[in-house]
Specification:
Structural class: alpha/beta
Strand order of the largest sheet: 2-1-3-4-10-9-8-6
Number of domains: 2
CATH superfamily of the largest domain: Neutral Protease Domain 2
Number of strands: 15
CATH topology of the largest domain: Neutral Protease, domain 2
Helix content: 25-40%
């Protein structure tokens, strides 16, 4: 699988807001990402609906062990079928609501109910598989409700229904539980984009959550901390991080990393950059991973792991590859070069899927630029498939023309020529390093492939 589909970022999402907003803090929310990790729940929901009135943290650890004593809003997603809400998590959720907290559970039903069904049933509700019919009706004072599609709710008569579909089936409802509240809602009522650029329904979501969550008062002066994955295992220079739910995957993924490591060293010709890859976090997702350099995070069942190994080997090598590239991210092909490392590791480990992955990417690019000479991959409108495939073509050709081990020569020369405090590593710098690495002026060759590079614009000194 081409890893731009990975949720692969070279930053580490902050655990909490560094600078609290100037207005009074009345909500301490916890976005749970222990049942199913998503970048949207990793702070983006907060930015869309709670910024300015609240402080949000993420729960990376076991939900059953989450301290909610100074929180008044718990945000839950549908979860993942591989990691159901266990008895301890359900007890903690119920206790939080009964003590005054508000739980917002966002999910949709299906033929096979989502794990969050256990949360809904705990309070006498259910996520129905029946799709909601437009238009929606509401009692929130809003003329229109934006709805991205989703399912309805099945509820007993103790619920207050605020949004219904055309056939009077509930889409959002609230119920008092002890001193607190439970809110069930179709996922389609809220934003989805990881960049938090679609704050749909914010005009009513924010006051709605304010109404219920503030029934429990929090101490805004006390630190609001998001718990980290509480289980660790030291494996030489690496610390493995996981929680109760991801524990069954942890050792296997750590072993895949250890298997890939010597191949990464062989392909790049160097060890990881100083201070890199100190931790490996197991994420409860099949959606990819991310890297901060010092920490790599890996989706526990990416590519249907452990049934299939190659996608996991490629992902681990991709995320770890960023720790070889840093402290200077590659221009243009920072993501492609990371996946290319994964492909090479897979090939060295005898996995036929690796060559197939490479061939598919090259074929997609050739449909756009048959001989790889016409389209400048540096142009703002260069297609993604062109950038990825052409990057692979360059790596393959440099290996053929200046190898074996041309990529290793490049990595070693980059470490030698580019100081840590170099301000901006450009494509012109990159070609200059390649030229030094293979002892040949490669600017004309790159230009023949359509790259708009200029030797006079490189900023490195010998």
């Amino acid at each position: 699988m081409i890893p731009s589909l990975l949720l692969s970022l070279i930053f580490f999402p902050p655990q909490e807001e560094v600078s609290p907003p100037p207005s009074p803090i009345v909500i301490h929310s916890v976005s749970d990402i222990s049942q199913s990790f998503s970048f949207y729940m990793d702070g983006r929901f907060y930015k869309q609906y709670l910024k300015g009135i609240g402080r949000d943290v993420r729960n990376w650890g076991s939900l059953s062990k989450l301290d909610l004593s100074n929180a008044n809003l718990l945000l839950l997603s549908a979860g993942d079928a591989r990691l159901p809400y266990d008895e301890g998590a359900l007890k903690n959720i119920l206790a939080f609501a009964e003590s005054g907290g508000t739980v917002l559970c966002m999910a949709d039903g299906a033929k096979k109910p989502p794990p969050a069904q256990a949360v809904a049933e705990l309070f006498g509700g259910s996520f129905s598989p029946i799709r909601a019919k437009l238009p929606l009706k509401n009692s929130l004072g809003e003329k229109e409700i934006t709805f991205r599609g989703g399912c309805t709710l099945e509820l007993n008569d103790q619920w207050n229904v605020f949004i219904q579909d055309k056939k009077n089936r509930a889409v959002l409802a609230q119920k008092h539980v002890g001193k607190g509240n439970i809110v069930l809602a179709s996922r389609g009522l809220f934003g989805h984009r990881p960049d938090a650029s679609d704050p749909i329904n914010a005009s009513w979501v924010t006051p709605f959550l304010l109404q219920w969550a503030t029934e429990k008062k929090i101490d805004a002066k006390k630190p609001h901390h998001g718990p980290w994955a509480e289980l660790t295992k030291v494996m030489g220079p690496l610390t493995l991080e996981y929680h109760d739910g991801t524990e069954p995957f942890a050792d296997g993924i750590a072993q895949e990393y250890q298997n890939a490591f010597p191949h990464l060293v062989a392909v790049t010709g160097v060890e990881p950059s100083a201070g890199m890859i100190k931790s490996l976090l197991i994420l409860p997702t099949g959606g990819g991973g991310f890297s901060s350099g010092a920490r790599i995070a890996i989706g526990a069942w990416w590519g249907n792991y452990p049934e299939k190994r190659y996608p996991m080997v490629e992902l681990i090598s991709h995320e770890a590859g960023h720790s070889w590239v840093l402290p200077h991210a590659e221009p243009l092909w920072n993501e492609p070069i990371a996946t290319y490392l994964g492909i090479q590791v897979g090939k060295r480990m005898g996995m036929p899927e690796a060559q197939k992955t490479l061939d598919r990417a090259l074929a997609k690019a050739r449909k756009l630029d048959p001989d790889f000479t016409q389209i400048d991959p540096l142009s703002p409108d260069a297609p993604r498939n062109l950038i990825w495939g052409k990057s692979y073509y360059v790596f393959e050709e440099l290996e053929r023309l200046h190898g074996p081990g041309a990529l290793a020569k490049y990595f070693r020369m980059k470490r030698t020529l580019v100081p840590d405090d170099h301000k901006k590593y450009t494509m012109n710098d990159c070609v200059a390093v390649w030229s030094k690495a293979v002892d040949n002026d490669l600017f004309p060759w790159f230009q023949s492939l359509g790259f708009s590079v200029d030797p006079l614009k490189q900023t490195l000194t010998d």
